[in-house]
Amino acid sequence: MGEKAKLSRVDEDLAELARRHGVATRYQDADRRWVDVDADVVVAVLARLDVDAATPEAVGRALSAPPADEGPLVLRDDVVLDGPGTVELEHGGAVDLPAVLPPGYHRLAGRTVIVAPRTLPPVPAAWGWMLQLYAVRSAGSWGMGDYGDLAEFAARSAAELGAGVVLVNPVQAISPTFPVERSPYSPSSRRFANPLYLRIVDLPEFTRADGDTRDRVLALAPADDSALIDYDAVWRAKLAALELLWPFADRVEPTGDLLGYARFCALAREHGPDWRTWPTAQQDPETATPDHDRVLFHAWLHRACEAQLDAARRAARDAGMAVGIVHDLPVGVHPGGADTWAVRDAFAADVRVGAPPDAFTRLGQDWNLPPWRPDRLAEQDYEPFRAVLRGVLRHADGIRVDHVAGLWRLWWIPPGEPARRGTYVHYDSEAMLAVLALEAYRAGAVVVGEDLGTVEPEVTETLHRDGMLSSAVLWFMRDYDTPGHPLIPPGQWPVGAMASISTHDLPTVAGFLAAEHVRVRADLGLFEGDVQRELEAAGTERADLVALAEREGVDTDDLVTALHGVLARAPSSLLLTSPQDAVGDTRQPNLPGTVDEYPNWRIPLSVPLDRLLADDRVVRVARVLAARPDR
Fold it and tell me: Which among 137, 327, 378, 456 has the fewest CB atoms less than 10 Å away?
């Protein structure tokens, strides 16, 4: 369709067909300008939904085809469902209609009825941490942070500093192969946990082992003095230790989803991390033949992860955390990982999720993550999505949904196309949100949606409607409708938000104040324009922040502490900072737009855990955030 001023009849038919399947033929970009999607892109995306639109005749046939079966009926728990009929309740019993139904997944005349709470309970006001767990180093961990460090960090933060919440980076499962996937946002599975974070000496099998075996295990611990985290060295050492302890473990036959995941892991160890490259028979779960002992081994590893994650959660609760440990949910999974192997029909094969071009990424973004198929989710009553949420919430006090706008729409890039040649595909957001609300309600968990960037207002408004928190980041809290885009005073930030100064994808506080983010990008050649202009822009932003702090009556002698003082004046339910921000580290954890050019996800904290929480800089920041005025 491109730049055509008026659609022809065929184009109108294609647009109607696309609308029926939730495929956008035009969208608003970051500057609110309408962009038409090329017709061949629309046709290619429809093809990934099994809709043939390659010719006018094919479009006509697709338009005349009978509609798909209705998906689940979605209700809230304060809505009367009219009759006649009888609803079979999820946990037994039946209710004659009309009636108000309890939260749950029920059945009515062969159709699933999803009933979610109208709103989640209020989130307690608390301050806390955004923790990059891998970056923590301690005497007990092996070269990178682990679940034992998470337990200690949470408990001590609560007991010594009064913290009420810890948001931890995604700890979903990797493929147990080499090289190790470093990005926590590209897991093999979102339903299971990452054994890379296991604390070996906390395993009951270590206690049961004989002295010689324990000595051999301890001798495997990698050195903890490298400048960057070496994931391969850590996993190699832990894998060798786990093999030594395996004879002391109970062999428990896995069932259900865990069986499928363990089978994938066993096959990945033999054939590599991407099932699409395996021998043909092994690519299909129905014909795959993994070694049974290896299946039992990987099921054991996951149960060990669950036990240590549960222990961390209990430690946070026992120490009095108001909220507890919140886990991060990535937007997708590796295209050749465990989830796509087990439930591949729920994913759009060969499609990559990303983002359209904007002022920062002129060519768009390609995240190389396969999206859910909205039609298959509806056909399966959203069970694949339920399984993902349960996998996280099983050991969490809360969940942060990365790129929460993906519950409404995702940018699909069809096979063979660059990131800019994609389009949005829409999902049933009411159904997705109902499942999210119901699973969080059952788990007693808080929900945070990451709604940063170019996001429709409906996203944030609906999160607040459902008792979920949005995100507020100081760098972005500006009035973009006013000339000069002035910073919004923290007192005007939303109450229903998780507020912070920065994020893992942005400069640290000290790095921003020193314009380290400009220097690093300039050194890597990531600027198209004048570097001096970027430095001047960073200087202007710094001056704006200092002026805001002064208007708020915050002492600006120590700017790192001062910006936390600005954050403390926000009425938002949760106020979060990071250890990197508190201690003044200048390197940000992840630099978007880079892979190997920058040590993403490999930078350790400059202060080890045994000294971190008593560090004067951390104590100052904690006091500022703990002294937040009453909302």
Answer: 456
For 36, the domain range is 12-64
Place of tokens 């079966």: 69
d(CA 327, CA 345): 27
Q: What is the residue type of 71?
A: G
Q: Which residues contact residue 198 at a Cβ distance below 8 angstroms, ignoring those fewer than 6 apart? A: 146, 147, 238, 242, 301, 304, 305, 308
**DSSP letter string, 473-529:** EGGG-B-TTSTT-PBPPGGGS-SSEEEES--TTS--HHHHHTTHHHHHHHHTT--SS
pLDDT of 631 reads 54
Residue at 201 is within a domain: no
In a domain, 28, yes or no: yes
CB contact at 8 A, 348 and 412 = yes
pLDDT at 7 over 90: no
pLDDT band at 236 (very low <50, low <70, confident <90, very high): very high
Q: How many domains does the chain have?
A: 1
d(CA 33, CA 17): 24
DSSP structure string for 130-196: EE-GGG---SSSSSS--HHHHHHHHHHIIIII---EEEE---EEPPSSSSPP--TTS-SEEEEE-GG
Instruction: Report whether pLDDT(4) > 70.
Output: no
Measure the CA–CA gap between 559 and 581, rounded to whole angstroms: 11
Instruction: Identify the CA nearest to 395 among candidates 484, 473, 313, 486.
Output: 313
In the DSSP assignment, the letter for residue 430 is: H
Q: Cα angle vertex 389, ends 148, 433, to 5°?
A: 140
Q: CA-to-CA distance for 85 and 182, rounded, in angstroms?
A: 52
Tens digit of each residue's pLDDT (9 = 90 or more) over 317-331: 999 999 999 999 999
pLDDT in the model for residue 630: 60
Q: Tell me how crowded residue 410 is: count the other CB atoms within 10 A of its CB.
A: 26
Q: Is residue 175 part of a domain?
A: no
Task: Determine how many CB atoms are found less than 10 A away from the CB of residue 346.
Answer: 23
Instruction: Please check whether residue 581 is in contact with residue 510, taking contact to mean a CB–CB distance below 8 angstroms.
Output: yes
pLDDT of residue 136 exceeding 70: yes
Residue range 377-397: mean pLDDT, rounded: 97
**Joined tokens for residue 488:** 């919004």
Tell me what percent of the residues of the chain surpass a pLDDT of 70.
98
Q: Which pLDDT value is given to residue 593?
A: 81
Q: Residues 521, 362, 453, CA angle at the centre, nearest 5°?
A: 80
pLDDT of residue 42: 96
Q: Which amino acid is at 265?
A: C
The one-letter amino acid at 78: D
* DSSP structure class, residue 308: H
**Section 568-577 average pLDDT:** 98
d(CA 9, CA 355) in angstroms, rounded, equals 30
Residue range 333-350, pLDDT digits in tens: 999 999 999 999 999 989
On whether the pTM is more than 0.85, the answer is: yes
Report if residue 211 sits inside a domain: no
